[in-house]
Amino acid sequence: MTEKISRPLILVSNDDGITAKGVHELVKTLQKIGDVVCVCPDSPQSGMSMALTVNSSLKVQRLEDYEGARMYKVTGTPVDCIKMGVDNLLERKPDIVVSGINHGSNAAINVVYSGTMGAAFEGCAYGIPSVGFSLTSHDEDADFTPCLPVIEELVCRILKNGLPEGVCLNVNMPANVKEFNGLKVTKSCKGRWNDRYVEYRDPANRPFYWLAGEFVNEEPDNKDTDEWCLTHGYVSVVPVMLERTYPELSEFSWIPEKI
Amino acid sequence: MTEKISRPLILVSNDDGITAKGVHELVKTLQKIGDVVCVCPDSPQSGMSMALTVNSSLKVQRLEDYEGARMYKVTGTPVDCIKMGVDNLLERKPDIVVSGINHGSNAAINVVYSGTMGAAFEGCAYGIPSVGFSLTSHDEDADFTPCLPVIEELVCRILKNGLPEGVCLNVNMPANVKEFNGLKVTKSCKGRWNDRYVEYRDPANRPFYWLAGEFVNEEPDNKDTDEWCLTHGYVSVVPVMLERTYPELSEFSWIPEKI
């Protein structure tokens, strides 16, 4: 039995937008643990990384509560949603930022483009323990059922243990698995997108382009990667950092001290 | 005298958009070193990080050549510009990606939000040596003159020495300095934005918000930071990495193997 001493304050966001199934499933689960305030983009923001609106203004609209949670939509990016939540909508700094559940994988190189992880990194920049959850299915009506106990347990453990400064978690879960084989703390797989632009013609015969491509896994047999976990039925938990500086500064002695 | 054996192919982009002074100064300088193809956003994209257009299409328009360089504008983000350049516009993989010159600092935490650095990181993801240049002035007509010899020399040295896999350079230069005191290879300064949203009212009295705030330097006396360099007249060169995985996975033993 959970004693009702002080319920944690949980800020939720995502990048698929306020109408996505994934964020509703997340809110419902997290309401068991704490008081949820959900601040999401009003439109899909997949691939928005840590994009931040600086050259225009934002509108915010409060919606009907969902399962007891306060719900807002913002005309911006996932990062904007976290900033708006922390700076303008919440009465106090939240105890945790939870982003997702994303419809689609954010494993490997996808972590750098992910708006879901953009929101988690932004929480991290505020010094708030933060985590992003993704399911490897783009289906709008994906079955998130197996994810929910994992999310509940991990969020409770993060609240209890905290996270290192500047570090958040990128959690990916394999779709179409009845029961996960387990969880692994692992690292981002090396790989890249083999991109191409598909050319179309508009009614006036002017070209326009849509990005297509396939992910190429450069270490498919490496068991210590998030991609391996996902293809073998495991949940991957990758601790990811906000820090960008490459630590081996001595490798750059060819950069002159004076020009 | 430069022998015309094979001129390097240089892909240029920025986040201030194709009309910005900074990118024109950059193109002019780089044409001395190699063949420049410039692919920039058609609108300002500051703060766009590594945002990538996945849910809509892109248009590309070739403009008049500038100082011998091929110029294109794309209806997308800096990352889109790099992808469009490499995948669709260039005849071969470029020898270097150069982004900027940004109107404004990309030191400290700004590196994570920067569209200028988004383009450089994207070049890096293709395995191309990549560098972003920024001047600490938002003035549309900023004086980039002292930057140009630094850029020319650094780009030549990068072409010669290469960069470690997954690492690019974030170069910031102080504005309003007649002559730089020198260059320092250094690290991102710890600090954060003290944000707030300024509230306005539209003609129908509905609120809208604009982000404001000040950067708080958490280590102002640390000489080994980019911010210190910039406030003391030095050019800061920060090697930055695409890798996100936090290396100390053993700190997460509290994450259960099974739920």
Q: What's the rounded overall pLDDT mean of chain A?
A: 96
Could you name the ranges of chain A where pLDDT drops below 50 across 5 or more consecutive residues?
Answer: none
* DSSP summary, beta strand count of chain A: 11
Largest sheet entry of chain A: 9 strands, mixed
As a whole number of angstroms, the C-alpha radius of gyration of chain A is 19 Å
Largest interface, chains and sizes: A-B, 79 and 79 residues
Shape of chain A: globular
Looking at this protein, list some descriptive labels.
homodimer; 259 residues; alpha/beta; 9-stranded mixed β-sheet; two-stranded antiparallel ribbon
Structural overview:
Two copies of one chain form a homodimer. With 259 residues, the first copy, chain A, is of the alpha/beta class. The first copy, chain A, has six helices and eleven strands. In chain A, the strands form two sheets. A nine-stranded mixed sheet of chain A has the order 3-4-2-1-5-6-7-11-8, with helices on both faces. Chain A is globular. The N and C termini of chain A lie far apart (68 Å). In chain A, 52% of the residues are buried. The model of chain A has no long low-confidence stretch (mean pLDDT 96). At the A-B interface, helix 2, helix 3, helix 4, helix 5 and strand 8 of A face helix 2, helix 3, helix 4, helix 5 and strand 8 of B.
